[in-house]
Amino acid sequence: MIASLAARHSWFEATARARLAGLLDPGSFSEILPPAESNPSPHLALLDLPGAFDDGVVVCYGQLGKRPIFAIAQEGQFMGGAVGEIHGAKIVGMLRRAAQEKPAAVLFLIDSGGVRLHEANAGLIAISEIMRAVLDARAAGVPVIALVGGSCGAFGGMGIVAKLCSAIVISEEGRLALSGPEVIETVAGVEEFDSKDRALVWRVTGGKHRYLMGDCAMLVEDDIAAFRSGATEFLAGWSEPVPSVAHLRAGQQTLENRLAAYASYRDGLQVWAALGVAEPESVPLLDRDALVALKEGLPT
Amino acid sequence: MSLNDILDSLFPAGHAVNVENKVITGEATTAQGTVAVLGTTDAAAIDHAMALALSAFILDTVEQHPGRALVFLVDTSGQALSRSQELLCLNGSLAHLAQCVDLARRQGHASLSLVTANAVSGGFLSFGLMADRAYALADAQVRVMDLRAMSRVTKIAHERLVELAAGSPIFAPGAESYVRMGAIEAIWPEPSAGLLEAALAAGGLAAPASDQRQNSGLLRGGRQLAAGITKTVQNAACGA
Amino acid sequence: METLDFRFDSKPVPRAADPALCGVVGSGNLEILVKSGIEPEACRVRIKTSARGFGETWRAVLDSFATSHPAGGTVIAINDMGATPAVVTLRLAQALAEYQGGGL
Predict the structure, then answer these.
(1) Interchain pair A52, C77: CB under 8 A
(2) pTM, full prediction
């Protein structure tokens, strides 16, 4: 046990580049528009802020289990992983390229608060373009897998993008939502959402909750190797569906049912109890394997 | 301007539109035939129920009226801000709505959106910006965040932001910025049947096969980097 | 933001991985990009930093580094978000180790 703990390499704490290095087959990483060939955002410079050479996102091709894949990795430590003009355009380019070249998958390592406010319009439009490009890649038969477990989670427009992907692989540390708790607290008051109550934030937006509710396909440990095996396992059993009314009707029904059942709830504990979890208060304490076993034993 | 005035101006030949919970659904008569009319009013903060009402209406239209054009009326102050909404993954319902608009496009439904009053962030992303083409009325407010709030979050002085916004569509709020950035086709001085007919005719003739907003932003001088960078990434040689 | 340019004499450094990148532009951190330059016995550095008024500190930290480590023949570009001298020295060592094909 101690040896395996020592060998673990936290996804949450790693940089985007370190995540890619551990996620892809060794030696297969090949970056497009690497830092030495690109320039920091001029829009940040105009606001007197230093930029990053890669504008906070790494786009590359590589291999996963010897299959050709594309990967997009946002750097949460730079401007909260937020999407600006260059950052967004790199992602759009990779997704459009995927629709043409049809790699086995696009791995989308999301770690972002959404729109970069310093480039607000460029960021919002870029996210809209990313949304369309994700759906175009998927319609071309290329699965797009979101991997969420970084310090910035997947929020704002990038939360929407994550839910447009074929599936989300998330860790317990990962968070997925639209508005951040801080934003809700600022606008609606601390009674509505206390953003400093970390346990509550995780019960509302965290990986375990999203996995239990079915919004994320897989829950993995906060470990780069676990994300790698999770993505590999998911792709092995997945074939990308053709966009269809039937498919979206089924999704519509699921969303309507759960809104009807849970609309008044304000805490994950209430939802988990309604899902049939006998001891919802124990959920935050369960390790990953125990939680997956719990989920698999729930009534459907 | 009231929703009814807007509808009367856009569709003088007739419209039958319901408004429930700030969600607009219905149909209207145009020279191009009957169109589906849908969207939100009264600066709706989009929640699960609104998103699902819109997505259900789109799926109904795709099933019952193949090819019928979709006219979105956009008046949204963004997304609903509450813990219960986030608990049920509001981004998931907005993504579902966006997927329904996208499906309609793939099934041959032309679409356009008209920002009638407000278009902000998540609410705008989920349907207005998913349409083939977007337009805005002259006094519409289109933005991510106003400059005062932006100043608080970015810790950049408000005066400095106002000064920079005058010359930069990259972050300056307003429909005009979105035209220059390529996301809005044109600003209409008022809701007009003639402009709507022309937009529908243009959309019907040449539904864009791909997202052209980067190119528009480049041509209009508002977004000078995105198109080139996306092309570079698409065309870069694969070394390994 | 402030842009600073320096040139230091330094013994030539062997080049293996060119360019080499280290670090992230996050709070209290910086990124360093090392490329080969044309002067084998000198190291040129351009810094863009969010913290104004620390030019002499940068000069002292970089001069000390260029004296104690071979860094000649390189051009170094730095984007900084308020890193301390200790962090700067650590990242420089990492970036140059990477450039020589090692990593720390």
Answers:
(1) no
(2) 0.97
